[in-house]
Design goal:
Elements lengths: L7 H13 L4 H7 L3 H4 L1 E4 L2 E4 L7 H13 L2 H10 L25 E2 L2 E2 H20 L13 E5 L6 H10 L8 E5 L4 H9 L6 E6 L6 H18 L9 E4 L3 H7 L6 E2 L17 H7 L1 H20 L6 H15 L4 E7 L6 H13 L17 E3 L3 H5 L3 H6 L6 E8 L7 H18 L3 H10 L4 H11 L7 E8 L2 H22 L7 H18 L9 H13 L3
Parallel strand pairs: 5-6, 5-7, 7-8, 8-9, 10-11, 10-12, 12-13
Antiparallel strand pairs: 1-2, 2-13, 3-4
Helix pairs in contact: 1-4, 4-13, 6-11, 7-11, 11-12, 12-20, 13-20, 14-20, 18-19
The structure holds 6-O-phosphono-beta-D-fructofuranose.
């Protein structure tokens, strides 16, 4: 039995959950007109409103007590100081050191991490300026026009999400393309659009062993050499971001063209490191630094704000409350800002790869649901797709609604229309429409009692569906940094509260290992491994039909 479920606060929350399941949010709002003031908080550039969550003051106090009983403050300090809290891999967890804008020294395993980070940032800055100013020349003496970033998972999602978020603010110095999929269709379409003489490839892989990335990188080199011919030209067109200098050298990338990261940076927390190089190349180093600054502000908030106003901690507590106590096992991320369209995909990895586990620190099976399924898309598109289910389905999906006060690009009345939808949806999910309202509306439209009876149940919206609204001043580099850091610390707190080892990903390794075994069978008929009849049947069908 896990310790967490034996805590006094956990037991108290279980009782509160039983009561809260019988309570409607509409009633909570009716009982307390200061609910917004009580359950919303701000940091520069961000308004965080969780008043439409299914909590009251009593539950909130119990959740804060849970944070205390789980010793969040001690764990937080351990993380920031470089203790090896990634226990299954014996590593520190120091993505916060990558954006330590106070530059306070931090010695871990005898190395001043701050100094190492600052050195790498200086290297990134110099490189970015050389490329963007046109001083970095390709093998025929031409400046770079296109950057192709090759990486997958944490070595792709962060940079691509930030690039998408900020592309309205980019100048036209460089184009950036992302290739992550082993499906050749993706790299083929990118290669079709670029010129080897003016293209810079950034191969991003912490391990430099990830099969999808290596496959794409190999294809890129072969394509490049078809024109450039000479291996010595690779140095001018390929750089790497990795911790594995041996592998990057074997690949043909010279050491000075390798940007490093460290084993204390997890893939899904790495956009602040040299993994963010494509962002800096695309938007300029200043914009990249602004992202770091936004995140640093949130780090300071997380370290110093009292628990009752600590946004990432509250996000985590609400997630645990919804998932482990109220039994809502999925959570939607719904940005009402086109710039944030990749945020759901980014957070899927962030949260599910971190906390999608079923054993506690001691390796014992936990008796509660851990991470919810994270999914979503831009809110407006979602409204015309799956919101029907959010409003009237018989699964309840708590949702984060994210919008910005000022649009990146103001077009006529678009933003007011967008924000009206943002506001309307959370109100509708909270209050719903009861039988009396439906009856009155239909009667006002002249429907007979028989017609009303027929339609009534179809038109009732139960409401009572919990949402959080995050209102950003605008989506700029600093805000992107703030937003991502809020979710990162949420994930950390969630992991500690649930006693989950958030910083490993053993579950991903299983499929990776099997894929490489099967690949050898698909490419060499003499190789045979034992499989189940389904896998055998699928392989046989594929081999038989692939050349027909
Ligand atoms: O998907 C599993 C994973 O290990 C992620 O955690 C990581 O971000 C990704 O693969 C890429 O790994 P690498 O940067 O080593 O290529």
């Amino acid at each position: 039995m896990s310790n967490r479920s034996q805590l006094a606060s956990w037991q108290a929350l279980k009782e509160s959950a039983a009561q809260m399941k019988q309570t409607h949010l509409k009633t909570l709002f009716a009982q307390d007109d200061s609910r917004f003031d009580a359950f919303s908080t701000q940091i520069p550039g961000v308004l965080f409103d969780y008043s439409k969550q299914r909590i009251d003051k009593n539950t909130f106090a119990q959740l804060i007590e849970l944070a205390n009983e789980c010793d969040i403050a001690t764990w937080r300090d351990k993380m920031f100081s470089g203790e090896k809290i990634n226990i299954t891999e014996e590593r520190s967890v120091l993505h916060t050191a990558l954006r330590n804008r106070a530059h306070t020294p931090l010695v871990v395993d005898g190395e001043d991490v701050t100094q190492a980070v600052d050195n790498e940032l200086a290297k990134i800055k110099a490189f970015v300026e050389k490329v963007r100013s046109g001083q970095w020349l390709g093998y025929t003496g031409k400046a770079v026009k296109d950057v192709v970033s090759i990486g997958v998972g944490g070595s792709n999602l962060g940079p691509q999400m930030a690039t998408e978020a900020l592309k309205a603010l980019a100048d036209d110095t460089l184009n950036v393309h992302y290739v992550s999929n082993a499906d050749g269709v993706q790299i083929a379409s990118v290669l079709k659009a670029i010129d080897p003489e003016t293209t810079l490839f950034v191969i991003s892989s912490k391990t430099f062993t990830t099969s999808e990335t290596m496959t794409n990188a190999k294809t890129a080199v072969e394509w490049f050499l078809q024109t450039a011919k000479d291996d010595s030209t690779i140095a001018k067109h390929f750089v790497a971001v990795s911790t594995n200098l041996e592998k990057t050298a074997a690949f043909g990338i010279s050491d000075e063209n390798v940007f490093t990261m460290w084993d204390w940076v997890g893939g899904r927390f790495s956009l602040w490191s040299a993994i963010g190089l494509p962002i800096a190349l695309y938007l300029g180093f200043d914009a990249f630094e602004a992202i770091l600054e936004g995140a640093f502000e949130v780090d300071e908030h997380f370290k110093t704000a009292p628990f009752e106003q600590n946004i990432p901690l509250i996000m985590a507590l609400l997630s645990v409350w919804n998932t482990s106590f109220l039994d809502f096992t999925s959570q939607a991320i719904l940005p009402y800002d086109q710039a944030l369209h990749m945020l759901p995909a980014y957070l899927q990895q962030g949260e599910m790869e971190s906390n999608g586990k079923h054993v506690n620190f001691a390796g014992e099976t936990v008796p509660y649901t851990t991470v919810p399924i994270i999914w979503g898309m831009t809110g407006i598109n979602g409204q015309h797709a799956f919101y029907q289910c959010l409003h009237q389905g018989n699964v309840i999906v708590p949702a984060d609604f994210i919008a910005s006060v000022k649009p990146q690009v103001a077009v006529d009345k678009h933003h007011d229309i967008l924000l009206s939808n943002f506001l309307a949806q959370t109100e509708a999910m909270m209050s719903g429409v009861d039988a009396q309202q439906v009856t009155e509306d239909l009667a006002a439209k002249g429907k007979t009692q028989a017609q009303i009876d027929e339609l009534l149940n179809h038109k009732i919206h139960q409401g009572n569906r919990p949402t959080t609204s995050i209102l950003l001043d605008t989506v700029d580099a600093k805000t992107v940094g703030r937003l991502i850091a809020l979710y990162e610390h949420k994930i950390f707190c969630q992991g500690i509260i649930l006693e989950i080892c958030s910083f490993d990903q053993w579950g991903v390794e299983l499929g990776k290992g099997l894929a490489s075994k099967i690949e050898s069978e698909l490419t060499d008929d003499s190789v045979k491994h034992a499989h189940d009849s389904s896998t055998n049947g699928l392989m046989a069908y594929y081999k038989q039909h692939r050349t027909q």
